[in-house]
Structure formats: structure tokens, C-alpha cells
Amino acid sequence: MTQAVGIAGALALALVLGERFPPPGDLLLAVGAGICGLAGITFLYRGLAVGRMGVVAPTTGVLAAVIPVVASFVFQGAPPPPAIAGIALALVAVVLVTRAPGFHADHPSGIKWALAAGTAIGGFNLCVGAFSGEAAFGPLVVIRLVQAVLMTFVIVAWRQPWRMGGDVLRPLVLVGLLDMAGNAAFILATQTGMLAIAAVLSSLYPVTTVILAIVVLRERLTRSHIAGIALTAAAIALIGAGSAGT
User: What are the φ/ψ torsions at residue 62 (nearest 5 degrees)?
Assistant: First the structure.
């Protein structure tokens, strides 16, 4: 459902903005991004289900950011020193914000799933960062189509339940639109700036989740959360200052 909403939203925006059909290179990258993105989310959920959140979440987040950062440094050059410092702080912030009480010591860590998830999501970021810049929403339509086809295949092949109650329809539509908007914003960010900065800033999404959980759900604010949120603010300021000079 969320994939269908994302496809419809991205296609509508592509038509409204008059985007041309993506070139062959972007089509291939979009297919790769779709496969990597779906694999990354699947591995992440599996890791969270069988492993320790305090291991799986930060490992996935940091690895997903580090892979495109290294690639960006190699192919685009290093950003100014303030931005590099901001990137380092942001990676630490991700670890602090996503830390959670673990299970017993004999509980599996889930590290193998975290490494697979982080690598796959990092691959998604690399594919998106390599788009030509001629279009943003057209490639996103392809990404969503690839993921929808793969998910349909998995559901049919493994006979997974797919019917949904009417009470979850509206939330799923909202999730689909927000997910599409987030992916589109990331694509546009990589087309207008450095991949390293876009990847690191997008990896800070757990901070927003934690803040919303504290404000809306009244969850307890831990020292780790406070430190992570503070480092996030400092990281964004440093990255912004470094980017302004480029």
C-alpha cells in the first residue's frame, strides 16, 4: 500500500514538473536503488526482531552513512573542515540517540543483520547519489515500482498475509506520502550538494523519531538522548557553516 501511494505521488509530481523520462543510466541506478533499499529495510527489521536494538540500530545507521561518506570523499573530495567535524559529531549522535537497553547477554546481537542492512542502505545512498541530476521524481517512480514488484513476489511466493483492515488505511497513505517525500528530498539534496553531507544529515532521522516519542508519547528522556540531540544540533550547525563556504 505504501509503495502504491509513493508511486502515485512521485508520478504526479514528475508530470506536474514536466520531468523528462529518465536516461538509461538513471534507470539502471534506480533499479539498483530499489533493490538495495528494500533489502536494507528487510534486513533491518529482521535484525530488530531477532537481535538487540542497541546493537542493530546504531550499527545500521552509522554504516549506512559511512559508506556514502567514504565514496563522496573519494570521488567528490573532502568537504571543508567544519563540515568534516559536523559529520563526525553526527555519526556519534546517531549512536547515542539509537541506543536502547539490550536483552540478556545470551540473546543474539543481530550484528550480521545490522551489517547487511547498513551495507544495503549505503548502497541505496550510493545509487541515488550517482543520478545524473536531469530528474528526481522519475527515478523515484522506478525505485518504487521495483520495490512493489519485489514485495509482491515475496508475498505470493511465501504466501504472506496481505489484507489490511480499514482502520490502517489512512495511516498507510500518510506513511507512503512521507516516505516518498523523504526519498525525494534526499535525491534533490544529493543533486544540489555533496553526497557525504546529504547522507549524514539524512541518517539523523532517529533524532526526530526520539523527539516525537518524547513529546507525543511522553517517553522518558535519557542522558544518551540528551547528549545525542545536543550533538545533532552542533553537527548541523557545523555542516551548515562548512557548506556555506563551498
Answer: -70, -45
